[in-house]
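Predict the holo structure. Ligand: 4-O-methyl-beta-D-glucopyranuronic acid.
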Amino acid sequence: MIMKVSVYVFLLFLFSLNLRAENGHDLWLRNKSTSHVNVVCSKSSPTLSIAVQELQQGWQGKDGVKVILTVKNDKAIRNNGFRLSPAGIQANTDLGILYGVYELLRRQQTGEIIEENVCNPSYEFRILDHWDNPNGTIERGYAGQSIFWRSGDTALSVTQNDRTLWKEYARADASIGINGAVLNNVNASPMMLSKKYLQRVKAIAEVLGPYGIRTYLSINFSSPAVIGGLKTSDPLDPEVIKWWKGKAREIYSLIPDFGGFLVKASSEGQPGPQDFGRTHADGANMLADALNPFGGIVMWRAFVYSPTDLDRAKQAYNEFMPLDGQFRDNVIIQVKNGPVDFQPREPFSPLFGAMKKTSVMPEFQVTQEYLGQAIHLVFLATMWEECLQSETYQKGAGSTVARCTDGSVYPQKHTAIAGVSNIGLDTNWCGHPFAQANWYAFGRLAWNNSLTSEKIADEWIKLTFAPVVPGQATSTLFSTEWTEHFLIPVRRMMLQSREAAVNYMMPLGIHHIFAGNHHYGPGPWYAPRGLRPDWTPPYYHKADTLGMGFERTRAGSDAVSQYHEPLGSQFNDLNTCPDKYLLWFHHLPWDYKMKSGRKLWDEICYHYETGLQQVREFQKIWDKVESYVDTDRFILIQSKLRSQCANAQVWKDACLLYFQQFSRMPIPYDIERPVNNLEDLIRNDTRRR
Ligand code: GCW
């Protein structure tokens, strides 16, 4: 016993010695080499030099070991995949070697065994979309200004600081397999295609290139008219076609490895082919033809909805399905995970597993627009896993969203996945230290879409929080003590965090009840006169004295029929519709009897309460791990959890008091009473609290 205590004290002492202040800038790449490695590589290139350097800087294997890097064609290796073995890494491309190096180092640092195996990426293009504006602001960005753009006199000059930051960014991306970055907002400024902006894109591309990251741009469909001086931007107009061809040539002459365009067209006020009576296919194909000679792709977003339709959730499917087979090979349709927006929970978009002759890519939102921004601790891997593993039944059982988008179910000319980035100029890149885990998770899932959230959380915690002892390999420091008292509780907290957010924000299929504009707090009442109904929460919750929920069954909007059988019928039928999607698909009376035996109203109340209690639990978990975390990160996260808790309370009080006006039923008496008044919450809902 005494022995045990002294080992414990000694370990604590060791940890505290090594809990140097950490500002989070090094992300999951904070572990340094602990021994010497002898790297043998017969070829040379900028990418391979990075690979060699990374091995030398991060090696935590046996001292003096020889590692051989071999670039050699092998049919078992696809794309930029690699073959890993204790003796070294083999790949078809230099970039494959670099990815293999990062994998090897990750395994060393997380204590995973290194045995011979081939790792191929699930998707060919693994892209981060930055919603960065030319003036440096970021739409839905919560971690400071853009790392790519800024306003003012020096807006377009490229400094050494810029280059350093872009390089750090590229390294972080490459270390998790990301191979593309869209540098600007999908609500795109036409200016981005002007000569002076393209010069800066070129400078960025030059830094990102050696890390295997291609640059892409979001384009504004009206560019030919706005910056090209043409009378129209009609995609079938010969002058317009010529203009885009010329623009593509100009871009590729500056940036030979340019990736292509991302397009938000005929959506939320953005210009598009429909302004000229043309279809999405006409627009996308025209751009695809311009990029095709240079190997570029078009990612055409399916995020479209118009105020006149009675069910926003159905529109993307309705607009795109008839166009299946009409798109060029280098067009990929980019589809958000859910049919409405990036809500805390939505069923998967029925556009996954729908088209058979068109490449489709998932779009996830890494930035937490609807999930507590940079204040709430919400690990999103569980949400993406839920989407990727959803069964579409496109070709019978086993047709998950993952397999329908990575070319396993129907072959796709190109496969891709995108994440809307959560990074900015904040020292720790993401605002919340745990938001880094979402960047990490997106990259890991893009590389391997069957990874579990648990595995990803495990890796990330080890890489991000493991004690650092100079000269000692990180994995040797994962004592039972550290695992039990730090890793396991923190991992549990991460894995529960998204469900907690769903509970305190919008459980049981409730959706889009956010306060207007900022999307942080609750606003189920928000419906200013004159605003399009589909931009107001009552359109989605449809609460009245009879009940609440959106009737999307066959008796309602019939959105259920956009899903293959047997899923459509499962959603349609109250007996088989999962509780988590209940009010997404059904409008139900307040006293509807749930599977739990409770009335709907009571069930709603218990979910809000559970969510709040889960966050209070997270606070306890975090307070208990204080001795394992450096002070700076500990305090920052502790304080963010306090705000999260206060906000979860606001969510609970606002939603229960607001909906109670319709249910006219008491909040079950074993639930803690609200501590805010509804009138105050409504009065203040435009403030982000
Ligand atoms: O979720 C909504 C956001 C908009 C965003 C839009 C989109 C870039 O509130 O800010 O615009 O989605 O995805 O285009």
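The chain has a mean pLDDT of 96. The first strand starts at residue 37 and ends at 41.
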